[in-house]
Amino acid sequence: MTSIHKWPIWGWALFYLLVASDQAQESVCWHRGDPENLQLFKDGDFILGGAFSLHSSWKDRQETYTTKPLPLECTSLNFRGFQFALAMIFAIEEINNSTELLPGISLGYKIYDTCSSIVKGVMVGLALANGNEVVSVSLEAPCTRPAQVQAIIGEASSSPCIAIATVIGPFYIPMISPYATCACLSDKTKYPSFLRTIPSDYYQSRALAQLIKHFGWTWVGAIRSNNDYGNNGMAIFTETAQQLGICLEYSVSFFRTDPNNKIQKIIKTIKYSSSKVIVAFLSYLDMEVLVYKLSEHNLTGYQWVGSEAWIFDFQTAQSDQHHILDGAIGLAIPKAHISGMKEFIIDVKSLNSWDNKLFTEFWETLFSCKFNQSKSSAENQRECTGHEDLSGLKHSFTDMSCMPALNNIYKGVYAVAHALHNILGCNETCNYKVQPDPFVILQSIRKIHIRTKEGDEIYFNENGDPPAKYDIINWQLRENGIMDFVVVGLYDASLPADKQLSLQDPFFIWTQNSRQVPVSVCNEKCPPGTRKVLQKGKPVCCYDCIRCAEGEISNITDSITCVKCPPEFWSNERRDACVKKEAEFLSYEEMMGALLTAASLFGTCMTAVVAFIFFRYRKTPIVRANNSELSFLLLFSLTLCFLCSLTFIGRPSEWSCMLRHTAFGITFVLCISCVLGKTMVVLMAFRASLPGSNVMKWFGPTQQRLSVLVFTLIQLLICILWLTISPPFPFKNFREIKDKMILECALGSTLGFWAVLGYIGVLATFCFILAFLARKLPDNFNEAKFITFSMLIFCAVWITFIPAYVSSPGKFSVAVEIFAILASSFGLLICIFIPKCYVILLRPEKNTKKNMMGKGA
Q1: What pLDDT digit, counting tens, does each position of 408-433 carry?
Q2: CA separation (Å) from 43 to 40, 46, 244, 414?
Q3: Which of 165, 312, 382, 806 could form a disulfide with 194 if both were Cys (CB 3.0 to 4.6 A apart)?
Q4: Strand partners for 52
């Protein structure tokens, strides 16, 4: 490569010439690209810019990049865009005719067509900021100039609005949009000069989620415009919906210029979905195209929930010939009325002053006619005269259903006018010798707080947004076939969360003219008594309903958990309430309790009869020979044994628990002591009959009484220690039977209980051994044999009692204990006394002293 130091003289001369040429060109303004066509214009002291979609689409071209691309060619005249532009002109003209606001000042306007295009929006933004004139190359032309407009009104769509706001933001030219709702535009770091007179989608998306939650729809589909408006709005809606427990079965994007295969895919998704509610976050232009496509497949029966962009659009309602959207609900800007605006818009005399090409296209589209058409085409379409009457025309241009949006434009213009009024210090006149800086105008707009002539407030918060208030709209088809937009509720974001949404449910008409609220859930709600269990791999709104386990309940719909009942309660059959457990104890009323009571009383009566017989025949040899004193004491103790079993029946109380075990222990020891005394008397009597024996003097009546007393006092002492240290007490047992509460007596001290039983067992064993030793004494009437048999029964009963008592549940353990007491008592009564009664009553010939003293065979 040749070194720069070796260049010839002419090379250096050429280099300096090129540098000088570049520096000269930098001082000259160059207009790059094609100039934007100014659609509507009026000169004035201060100019307001307007950016509206006078067309809704553009011709799609395949650029080859071999030649310079042609300017964007707009198509499909948008009559709502014309209404927006006329609303801006109306507000400006009204201010110009006012003597109070900006007196002596005339406002002008420059209105451009963005065609709903982002590219076109950028070019319109540059044209409004820098001017739109073709500048010739001149060394004297300065490249700096003041802003061409003091503020910009528009755009109505979010995506073009973002493009324009990005371009003019660094210059702080105020931009007030009447209809761009994307929440992203509230970011003042990106869009410092942007304001709007319509609430942000942040509030609308949350309001839509609350509306869906109100009607119990948890399984919905979603369609959004594939632009900043739809994508941002749906993102906020999805986030809020998840917080409220709402699931999206599908979420698809759509744009009116999408290819047919993508639209078919969307239709297929809707057709084969199970959700019956569709949330449509679409612009009205996209909605018109989508409704047309849906009508081709007759997709009716879905409940549509719409955003404010299309929910009160008359043109969308008119295009819905197949009633796809009947019963739709959604949010709309509150109704408004501006006196004189409707007449101004419909009065088309002023249109003649517009650009001839735009007026021609507008008029021909509005009346479906042609100007200056050739003779060959005269048969196909009628010719326009230019004097057609709009008064009786039913058209989207003459429909004023979008008056709230027009009111937003009206308020935007008045906000700028009041800001200029304050800056210029207007009183009777205004000082307008110097054009105010756009930043000063922006600051003034941010501070205003005024009312329009209709009473509407105009002010902006720190993000440049107005307060969020919406009407809830319901599409109701009237008998004449006209779709009516009925206000059925309100949403006010400034109120507390639980009062923001106010609805009049009886006034709703749903899809297919139904009065019944549609159902759209992945699963039916889990009724009380069940809990939700998520289905694997599916959203949280899809679940199975599992019945609560025993002892657990759920008393709300769609409960995620079952709550365990308190210990004293149990779940009912439906598992939706805790009911008090049935108290189980051995009562007198039930069959088992009644039988045991009867057996106890029978034993008591039987003992009383035996005592009566013994008392009646107390002087007979058989009574006197068997120690009548101990016999009567034994009968008394048996009576107490029979009666103490009754303390085990009935609801346990503190006193009954202490009484039942101690009374049982003491009476049985008294009984066994008497039997033990009788046994010892028999043995001692036999020993005394032997030659040289002197045993009976050590076991006379006094010693017998003393032994019974000592044995009983030992048991009494054990019971006193038991009751003092840790007595029995009433206890509610919840473990044995889950659904019942067993009322029983806790032992308190287990050692005390087994000490009482053990002492009885020791005495019974000792008595059995002595009786067994005396069973073959040679007396004709040997009582020891019967005592041996009775003690055998007694020990057998109580040995089998222990495992039966431990293993028996609930009240049956009490029944086992009562049965043991009664069985052992009957055993003693029958074995010891019945044979004697038999002899006394039925064999009196054997009841003699001779027979008592005689030897048996």
Answers
A1: 999 999 999 999 999 988 887 887 77
A2: 10, 8, 53, 18
A3: 165
A4: 113
